[in-house]
Write a structure and sequence with these properties.
Rossmann fold, 310 residues, alpha/beta, globular, binds nicotinamide-adenine-dinucleotide
């Protein structure tokens, strides 16, 4: 086996980096993604490039990748990679399919419990002698509520399994799966149209890729069609939810809560309109990133990259 040059330009579990370095010549620099010129120069000499979600594998960078045979993606969504252009250049793109599904699903369940109950942000009030018991005593239990899952792939199915454990009713819509697809019956989930899901779910969670067909899917009209007081959770990608329409719906009480982990622009610029929005939970694209999932994702990609040079 000849030693390949592997460039890793975003963070990867150190144990997985060591696996690659045992067999190949590895440059591991998690900050490299922030230096476009140096990234292009290093990528030009790479047989494999390992990225997370920040590296835009397209245009100038892709043009510089003259030797590259493999792009390993430490995650699932491929919207930061021009996959057709990679394929046209004979570059194989390898995602970490399924490896962070549990981490995202647990985030969805935690957000569901927090947002339906709406009673866990009282530390400041309680510690300063206020006692907002009456105001916070009217939250909803999760058991018996309907969870609507948009996109019934790896993460959607894992989320359904956890939600059943809490006694939720689960319905799902997937544009690529017919209603009689065995996975629905096997997982005890009722397949429905998107309109039906939006109309009847108490909690709507999105697990779809960013595509032309999903961009703007949750615009003002669709958010307006959601059940009054419902909760919206977006861990899929920014651009799928109209954040201004969402905050307007939270302010009027049309929606009862929202958790947003992904944004049109990341990092999210300073956004005063989001800071005082009721029952809105914002996180910095971490739903798929936990200690365990980082290890699983990194080891999966290390093994697949190693296999591609056998
Ligand atoms: N925030 C994070 O940390 C994080 C982590 C992992 C994944 N993600 C995002 O979550 C998405 C889903 O991940 P996954 O592993 O479940 O992917 P997956 O490919 O297993 O499932 C996606 C499902 O969406 C369906 N789909 C596609 N277009 C649709 C549409 N218009 N309407 C309804 N369904 C549609 C597909 O048929 C598929 O079943 C990824 O594409 C990624 O963008 C985010």
């Amino acid at each position: 086996m000849t030693r390949a040059r592997i460039v890793i330009c975003e963070f990867m579990d150190e144990g997985a980096v060591a696996r690659l370095a045992a067999a190949h010549d590895v440059l591991y620099d998690p900050k490299l993604v922030g230096d476009a010129a140096r990234l292009r120069a290093e990528a030009a000499g790479a047989d494999a490039l390992v990225v997370r979600n920040l590296t835009q594998v397209r245009g100038d960078l892709l043009a510089a990748m003259a030797r590259c045979k493999v792009v390993g993606r430490l995650g699932v969504g491929l919207d930061n990679i021009d996959v057709p252009a990679c394929e046209a250049r004979g570059i194989k793109v390898i995602p970490a399919t399924g490896a962070n599904a549990l981490s995202v699903a647990e985030y969805v369940i935690a957000s569901t419990l927090l947002l339906l109950r709406g009673a866990f942000a009282s530390t400041g009030a309680v510690a300063t002698g206020q006692w907002p018991r009456a105001a916070l005593g009217n939250g909803r239990e999760t058991a018996g509520q309907t969870l609507g899952i948009v996109g019934f792939g790896s993460i959607g199915q894992t989320t359904a399994r956890l939600a059943h454990g809490l006694g939720m009713r689960v319905i799902a819509h997937d544009a690529m799966l017919p209603r009689d697809a065995p996975v629905f019956a096997q997982s005890g989930v009722q397949p429905v149209s998107l309109d039906e899901l939006v109309r009847s779910a108490d909690v709507v969670t999105l697990h779809i890729p960013l595509l032309d067909t999903t961009r703007g899917l949750f615009n003002a009209a669709r958010i307006g069609a959601m059940k009054k007081g419902a909760v919206l959770i977006n861990t899929s990608r920014g651009h799928i939810v109209d954040i201004n329409a969402l905050t307007a719906a939270l302010r009027t009480g049309q929606l009862g809560g929202a958790a947003i982990d992904v944004f049109d622009v990341e990092p999210l610029p300073v956004s005063p309109s989001l800071q005082d929005c009721p029952n809105l939970l914002l996180t910095p694209h971490i739903s798929g990133v936990s200690a365990q999932s980082n290890e699983r994702v990194s080891v999966m990609i290390a093994i697949k990259v190693l296999e591609s040079f056998l």
